[in-house]
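forwarding from the other thread:

> can someone predict this with glutamine?

sure thing
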Amino acid sequence: MLHATLKQLCDGLAAGKFSSVEVTQYFINRIKYLNKYLNCFISVDTEKSLAQARAADNMRATGKAQMLTGVPLAQKDIFCAQGWLTTCGSKMLSNFVSPYDAHVIERFNAAGAVNLGKTNMDEFAMGSSNETSFYGPVRNPWNRETVPGGSSGGSAAAVAARLAPAATGTDTGGSIRQPAALTGICGLKPTYGVVSRYGMIAFASSLDQGGPMARTAEDLALMLNVMAGFDARDSTSLQREPEDYGRDLTMPLAGLRIGLPKEFFAEGVSADVIGAVERAVAEYRKLGCEMVEVSLPNMALSVPVYYVLAPAEASSNLSRFDGVRYGYRAKDYGNLNDMYEKTRAEGFGAEVKRRILIGTYVLSHGYYDAYYIRAQKLRRLIAQDFVEAFKKCDVIMGPTSPSTAFRIGEKSGDPVQMYLSDIYTIAVNLAGLPGLSIPCGFDTGGLPVGLQIIGNYFSEARMLNVAHQYQLATDWHTRSPEDIEETTP
Ligand code: GLN
C-alpha cells in the first residue's frame, strides 16, 4: 500500500483486495508514527476517519460506491469541515470547530472519500515555506532541515512521505505548485472559478483557488473530478458542464506546441533547476512536441502587483476576526476597542500583521489610486501577455520555483527573498489561468525540482494529458525520500 497511487487504491478497493477501514488504518498508523518528525498534520481524529471508512465500506457493499469511495485523503486546514478543528494555521482560529462543510469537503463526503486529517499550512495561507504556521514549521521529508514550501506545505509533505495518498491544497500565488515542486509531487491550480471557494477560508478572494495534490497526473484528474463543479454559494463559481479531467490522458503529444517564455530562463534561477527543466523539455521534444519561444514582458511586475492586491484583499477578508463572532478572544481587556486590539495583536502572527498593514495602507484615501488602482491596471497587462503567448503555443513550460527546498530559517528574516519564491507562479493567479507542477529531476543535493506547465483557460484536461505522457516516459514521479521504507511501522 505504501507506494500505491490513488488510482491503484481505488482499483484495489473496487476489486475487494482491501477494505476502506484497512487502507485508512494503514495511513493512520503511518501518521501516528511519522507525524512527529514532519509536523504535516494539525489534527487527526482516528474515530471520525474510521467511522467514515466504515460508512464507505457500507456504500460499496450496497452497490453505491463511486470512484473515490473509501480512499483516505488529507485536507488542508483552510477547508472548513464540520466537527473538525479548522485553524487555517492561526492562533486566531485555534479553538474553531467548524459547524459546516466547505463545498470541496461536501463533494468528497458525497463521493465517499475518507478525511484522514487536517494538514498544516502557513498562517492564513500567507507564506512560501510553512514557517508562519502557529503550529510550527513542517519539515521536508527529503531533508528534514529544509522547508516543504508553502502555504500547502503540510499537504505536500504528507503526500511525499506517504502519510496520505493525496491531499487538497489552495493556491493564491503558488501555494499548490511551489510546495509540490519542493517535495517532488504533483499539484494543480485550476482555472479561477472551477473549484468553489465556499468554506475555504478567504485570503485574497480574486486569486484563491483550491486544487489537488497527488503523486501522478492521473491521480490529480481523479481528485479534480470530485472537487470541480458549480456552487451558487460562491459568486465567482462558474456554471459549466461537468468534465472528466482524465478524458485526454492517453492522447499522443505529437504536434503539441510548447511555449518557453524567455523570462523563465533568465537569471535568478538556480543552475540545477534550469538543467532539470531543460532535460524535461528535451524529453518533450522526443515525444514529438515543437518548442516555440514566447515572451511575457510584464512578468517581472507580477510579484510587486501581487503584494499590493493580495494584502489589500486580505486586509478586508481578515477584518472579520475580531474576537466577537468566533475564534480567539484576548483574556484581559477594558472596553470594546481594547478587546479588538488585544485580540488581533495576540491572535495574528507577524506575517499576517504585515499583510494587513500593507493592505490597509494601499487601500487608504490618497494612496488608493497610486497603488491599488495602478496594480489592477498592471494585472490586466500581465493577463494580456498570456493571451498573446497562447496565440503561438498550446501550453507554456518553465520552472515552478527558482530554487529547490531551502533551509528552515534561511529566508524567514527577509520577506522580499521569501516573496521571490513565487516569481514563476504568481502571474498565473493574476491571470486566473490553470497551472500545474510535476517532478522533473533533482538538484545536486538530491532535492526535487518541479516543472511548471501553464495552460489556457479551462485546459486542465489537456495539461494533465501533457503531464501524464511525460510520466509514462520518465520515472521522476515514482521516486520517494530514501528513509521512507525504514521508518515504515
Ligand atoms: N507565497 C505567496 C504568499 O505568501 C502565495 C501564497 C498562496 O498561494 N497562498 O502570499
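DSSP finds 15 helices and eleven strands in the chain. thats all i got for now
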